[in-house]
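[audit] Reproducing an earlier prediction to check determinism. Same input, same settings, fresh worker. If the tokens differ from the archived copy the diff job will pick it up downstream; this log only records the rerun itself.
[audit] input (285 residues):
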Amino acid sequence: MALKNIIGIDHAVVMVKDLDKAAENYRQLGFTVSPRGTHSAHMGTGNYTIMFDPDYMELLGVLVATEHNAPARAFVERHGEGIERIAFTAVDSAAGAEEIRARGLEPIGPTDFERPVTLPDGTISAAKFRTFMWPTAEAPGGVRIFACQHKTRETVWIPELMTHANAAKRIKQTLIATPEPAKEAAHLAGLIDREAKTDADGAVIVPSGGDRADFVYLTLDQLAKRYLGVSLNGLTERGGAALVLVSGDLAATEKALGSAAVRSGAAICVPPAKANGTLLAFIAG
């Protein structure tokens, strides 16, 4: 039976070494970036969000080393910057944690936390969440997964933050590099009760649920063939790799990306070296 409390991909977490520099880099790429958020002392992290509809990207940095953020720090030490984990939307995190517990996996959480949010009118509110994680070892393709229940969607999906000069609208696919795409895809499919299917080039797709973005597991060679002419320097053989973003206007995308833009077939790309370890591929919506 499919998990009842998981809808599909909610957001992609891009681990960065210098949080403020990363935010400025994404602004230069034409993204509207939220004000900086700071998590609890227990979490020891801060973030900037890049809001789409119905999903988003999160730039996450470690501010103070804690036990909680040890896996994220280990990822950066092994891989450098890039996609470190993917969140699903949770309808009810407590119930979702019990669902995976019933399948023999010990969830981390559910955990309640919040961060201050500066609203467009200058007032301060809070974004409140309840999350749970699959066990740290359950990381298909080297990318961890968790689920996020938004208690205050109105302080996260702020209309003023959802329009981008580069015309980005939503995440279409999350591409994860691995030497063994079929094995890693089967691992994820088993964790979230979805059925994997093989694409024409041998990559393996796992739908995340609903109308949300798909996971795609593929080798670095397959990724290179999909995006000919785009340097993959900075990507490791196994780990987070790329986000395919739907653009509402590819001409606007290319203009906003400026010198970072690389045309590859029908996509306009930003190489990982210019997007904090994540290949960005914009396609027509």
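[audit] rerun output stored. Observation attached for the diff report: The mean pLDDT is 95.
[audit] end
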